[in-house]
Write a structure and sequence with these properties.
Elements lengths: L12 H7 L6 E4 L3 E5 L6 E8 L11 H22 L4 E4 L14 E6 L16 H11 L9
Antiparallel strand pairs: 1-2, 2-3, 3-5, 4-5
Length: 148
């Protein structure tokens, strides 16, 4: 039993993206985890590493998912570093409403820093699917395999 107050946002957007029910840019996918290009770019190439199985928080993932997620976080960071050539890369993860988790599906954010450092925490313009696909096209040569 967890003491976390998890957001009540169902159906799960990430599950819908991964199943193809709702269109979204999937940069890379493996059995345990996937890398998505978020439509809310808070950094220069802002990616999400998610478990492919629905797991609301870090307390709900298993060892295999943990290993796969961390490997893909490193892969995403390396791709961002190669393509964006930023002086910093931000990595963050939130669990529970009090930690500002919005979607109740475990995910880690990976983003190149913006001019002046850090990431953009203000309201950001939501990109179109075509714009996120363009980001994926730039990053894809630096990730293993191709999106499935």
């Amino acid at each position: 039993m967890s003491h976390l107050n998890v957001p009540n946002a169902y159906p799960c957007a990430f599950c819908d993206y991964l199943s193809g029910l709702r269109p979204f840019t999937i940069l890379y996918r493996e059995d345990q985890a996937a890398v998505l290009v978020t439509r809310e770019q808070r950094g220069l190439s802002h990616l999400l590493v998610v478990t492919t199985r629905h797991a609301p928080t870090v307390l709900n993932i298993n060892d295999a998912e943990s290993e796969a997620v961390m490997r893909l976080v490193r892969m995403a960071a390396r791709a961002i570093d190669e393509v964006e050539q930023r002086p910093g890369i931000s990595v963050w993860q939130n669990n529970g409403v009090d930690a500002h988790q919005a979607i109740p599906h475990f995910h880690i954010h990976v983003a190149g820093t913006v001019a002046g450092g850090g990431t953009d925490w203000d309201k950001v313009h939501e990109l179109s699917l075509e714009q996120t696909e363009a980001i994926a096209t730039r990053l894809r040569p630096y990730v293993k395999g191709t999106a499935r």
